Amino acid sequence: MRLRFDFHREKFMGAAKKITTDVFEKEVAKGKGAAVIDFGATWCGPCQALAPALDRLAVDYAGKVLIGKVDVDEEPDLAAQFDVLSVPTVVFFRDGKKVDQIQGNYPDRIRQRIESLIKA
Question: pTM of the prediction?
Answer without folding.
Answer: 0.87
